[in-house]
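Note to self: user wants both folds in one dump. Writing first protein now.
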Amino acid sequence: MTKLTWTPEQKATLVSDRKTAVLAKSRDDAVLAGKFLLQYQSGYGQSDLTTLTEDIAADFVPAVAAGVYEYALAATNLEDTVTLTATLAGASIRYTYGATVNKVVASGVGEAVALVVGANVVTIKVLVSGYGPVIYTLTITRAAE
C-alpha cells in the first residue's frame, strides 16, 4: 500500500471505487497508479469547543462536555432570545438558524438568536485549520404561553 500525501500548494485528484483507491493525478496530470492510503484528520476532538454557554434560566441537556455534539435547551415563553457563546481559540465559528446561514462570529463572542414558540434548531460549525469541521446541534424549545 502506498501512502499518498501532498501539500496544500499541490493539487491531487483521487478516483476511488469506495473500497480501494485506484488512480491519483498530480497537478501536472502525471498518473499515479496503485493502492493508496488516504489520511483524513477529523476535527472531532481537535476542534471541540472549550466552552459553550447560554444566557437563559435553563441549562443545556446534557451538560456541556467534550465529545458531546447535540444539546437541548428549554426556554420559557418570556425568553424570546438566547445568546449563545461558542469558544475555541483560533477557530472560525459559524452559526446557522432560521434564515441565518453560516454567520461567522468570532470565538468567545455571543450570538443573539430570536426564539419562536416551539423548537428552534441552531447549528454551530467549528472550523480549525488542518482539521475537518465539528458541528454542534442545539434544539432550543420555547414554551407556549
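First done. Writing the second protein, which came from a different request thread.
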Amino acid sequence: MHTLYIAIDCSLSAFVDKQPHGAKKKLQLALDFAGELVDRLDKSDLDISLIALTSRPKIICENAKNAADVTASFSSVHGDNCVPNFVELRDLILQRHKILNFELIIVRDAAHYLPISDSFRLPCIVKFIALSNNRTHDPRILAEFETISTACAADAKLLRTLTNEQLKPGMLYDNASMNSLVDSLVSLSRTTSDVSLSISPTTSIEVNVVPGLPKPPFLILENEELLKKLNDDMKGSSAQLQLLGFVKSASLLCLPRTSMLHIIRIKDLSNEKNKHDFHLFAEALGSEGQVAVFMHSSGEECIVKPLRDDINDPWMLCLQFYPSGHFRWEPEGCQTEKAKIQFSEEKGVSYKVSNSRTYWTDSHGIQSDILKINRLLKRSDRIEQFYQEIQRIALYAIACGYDDPPTCALMADLIMKRCSNAAPENRGHLAKIIETLKVGGFRQLLPGKL
C-alpha cells in the first residue's frame, strides 16, 4: 500500500496577504486543491493522510476518502504565529515508515519567503505546491523548493531515474490553474500491479500483485507546465524482483500479516508457459517448505512464500516486504550542524540463505544433491526415495530455468561419475535416469513421466 501525505501550511505567517482576508482566501484555495485531489485519486492502492503543518505538525486525518474529509479535518485547525516546523514534519513521517512507499505533497505560500531548515530531508519524492492569488512570488522560494526536492530524491536514490526537468516544483496560482494541476497529479502512476519475477537468466514469470507495489519515479511538476505527464512507456515500467536465494525458516513462513503483504496472481491465464512456470515455482517452494528471497528494484529485500488453504489445493504465492532496516537521522558532529540520513539495520529476521537447495546457483547446490542421490543408491531398500529425490530435483530445475540440454547433459555426467558405486540391483535404475536426462531432459523425470 502506497501512502500519500498532503501537508498544508496552516501557520498564519505563511498566509499573510496585503489584501483583506487574503490569508483566508489562500487557505481555502489550499483546502479546495486538497479536496479535489483526494476526491479524484484512485484509492484502491493508496492511503491518503492529511497533515496540518504548523509549529507542531500533526496528522489530522488518516485514510481520507473525499473532499468532505479534508474540510472536516481542517475545520478545527487554527494556525499559530510561529513558522512551520519542518524538522518535526520530517520526524513525524520517518517514525511511521520503514520502506520507501510514501510520497509527500506540501502546500505553501509563494509570496512570502520563510526559509526551510537545512535538516529537512526525506528519503522520498517531495512535491511543493506554491500558492499565489496575485501571481507574484519570491524567486528564493522556488529555488529552495527545487533544492529540497532534488536532495530528497537523492536520499531516495531516485536521481538516476529522474531528469532535471522532473525535479522542479509545481506552481498553483488560482482556481483556474488548480484544475490543471490536479489533472496532472491524478494522472501519475503511483503503483504498479505488473511484476516480473526474475528466476534465472532463462526464466522469468510475469505476475500481478494485489495491492500494487510503489512505482518510482513520481513526477514533480515544472513551474507553470502543469500538464506535463509521466511517460509510462519508459523502460522498466514493471517492477522487477531478482531472485537472491532460498531459506528454510519457520519464522519467515509465519511472519505476521502487514500492509506490505501482496497476493501474487498469474498475469495472463492464456499464456500456458507462464502459467506452467508459475505453478512449478509455487510447487517447488511449497513441497520443500522454503521461502524465496528476492531483491526489489528499489533495493529492498522481500520474500515470496507459498500458501494454500487445503492440502489438496495447488500452492499459491504471496509477496511480503520485511525491511532489512529503517531510515533515521543522525547529526553530523554537534547538534547544531546539518543532520544526515542513516540506514539502521533491523535485527531479528535474517535473509541469509541456508545450506538447503539453492537451485544450483553455485557448485555447492549441485554437489549436495548428487551426494544425497549417491547415498540412496548405495542402499537396496531406498529406491523409492531415490525416485522421489530425482523428481524433486527435476521440479526445481524446471522451475528455475535449468532444463536446457547442456545443463541436463552435465547433470547426467555428474550422476554417472559420482554414483558409480551404486548397489548392483540399483544400477539399472541409475542407467535409466541418466539416459532419460540425456534424451528428454528434466521434464521427462517429473511425476507421471517415468
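Dump finished. Worth passing along: The two ends are 46 Å apart (CA to CA).
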